[in-house]
Amino acid sequence: MSVSNPTPDTHRYRLGGRELRRMGYGAMQLAGPGVYGPPADPQGALNLLRDAVAAGVEHIDTSDFYGPHVTNQLIREALHPYADSLTLVTKVGARRGLGGSWLPAFSPEELRGAVHDNLRNLGLERLEVVNLRLMFDTHGPAEGPIEQPLQVLEQLRRDGLVGHIGLSNATPAQVEQARSITELACVQNHYNLAHRADDALIDQLAAAGIAYVPYFPLGGFTPLQSTALSEVARELGATPMQVALAWLMQRSPNILLIPGTTSVVHLRENLAAEQLLLDESSLRRLDAIASAGQDRGNPQKL
Questions:
Q1: How do residues 64-113 score in pLDDT, each as one tens digit?
Q2: H/E segment holding residue 282
Q3: Residue of 287, 257, 289 whose CA lies nearest to 273
Q4: What phi and psi values does residue 202 have, to the nearest 5 degrees?
Q5: What are phi and psi of 139, to 5 degrees?
Q6: What is the DSSP string of 41-66?
Q7: Is the pLDDT at 55 greater than 50, yes or no?
Q8: Which residue has better confidence, 60 or 292?
Q9: Rounded distance, CA 69 to CA 235, Å?
Q10: What pLDDT does 302 receive?
Q11: φ, ψ for residue 257 (rounded to 5)?
């Protein structure tokens, strides 16, 4: 594997009030099937969380609607009291219905209740970063009113229960509006090597010093598949998923990664991707994947 020898700043970026290692961990997969109910192996989930922090992970993404409550309770059991270097980032704005359906939860009462649920289940007195998950369309970002829910979170920030506010599943117009209401810590949207609708937004946020946190960085429920990706990985002596993560690391310095896994082996592979250096030839071949996928009508599976 070809590895980089970067300056220390290359792999760190500010999120809210903290400068973090850019390769973090997403806890969504620690819940049961469909992100609902408990995991099949609770002890394995606890061990993986401890291994992640021991390996230097400083950023864990979670939410109390994962499970619901499951991932936050696992995080608390595994890691509380938390290391000073660890930042937990959560989300509000959704709830789980019967059978695990995903429903919007945008009222002031629901948002305040969600913040208190996260505080209780994580064992915290203050949440460092809370992302408002927008639920105007279950398939992706869609326009809709965000002023009132952001004002609720802004009041919770003034009350000392929330440190910083971000957006998840947001359009560029909503990001612009949010920045007029509060100081935005991050945007968390669907983005990866093949799904690149947010290219312009990422560059705008980078210019403003705002973190961008892609969810489904490895394709989500449809894993990234591409001949070009496999070829580059083989040439570099890496896995395709490591190359996909390395591409994101080199795409923009404000990108913070939160790949999820239930496997310690995959966790370590993901963290090792932080050191993988892609040369200009490899980058050009990988950059072409998105346009090829759009031509075929499927930007995720090529």
A1: 999 999 999 999 999 999 999 999 999 999 999 998 999 999 999 999 99
A2: helix 280-295
A3: 257
A4: -55, -45
A5: -100, -5
A6: -HHHHHHHHHHHHHTT--EEE--TTT
A7: yes
A8: 60
A9: 43
A10: 28
A11: -105, 140
How confident is the model at residue 221, as a pLDDT? 67
CA distance 26 to 5: 26
Q: Which residues contact 98 (CB under 8 A, 6 or more apart)?
A: none
- Is 224:240 a contact under the CB 8 Å cutoff? yes
Sign of the torsion formed by the C-alpha atoms of 271, 276, 280 and 283: negative
Q: Note whether 172 and 228 are within 8 A (CB).
A: no
**Domains of the chain, with CATH numbers?**
8-218+253-262 (3.20.20.100)
Phi, psi of 163 (to 5 degrees): -85, -50
Dmax (CA) of the chain: 54
Residue 212 is among the residues annotated as catalytic for this protein: no
Please tell me which residue in 13, 66, 191, 212 is annotated as part of the active site. Answer: 66
The SS3 assignment for 234 reads: helix
Describe the chain by its helix, strand, coil percentages, rounded to 5. 45, 20, 35
Measured over the CA atoms of residue 64, residue 70, residue 76 and residue 78, the dihedral's sign is negative
Structure tokens at 6: 């970067």
Tell me the two tokens of residue 249: 């690391």
Average pLDDT over the chain reads 93
**Which one, of 185, 174, 124, lies nearest residue 149 by Cα?**
174
Strands 127-133 and 87-92: parallel
Q: What is the pTM of this model?
A: 0.93
Structural contact between residues 167 and 134, judged by C-beta atoms closer than 8 angstroms: yes
Tell me: the pLDDT tens digits for 171-185? Answer: 999 999 999 999 999
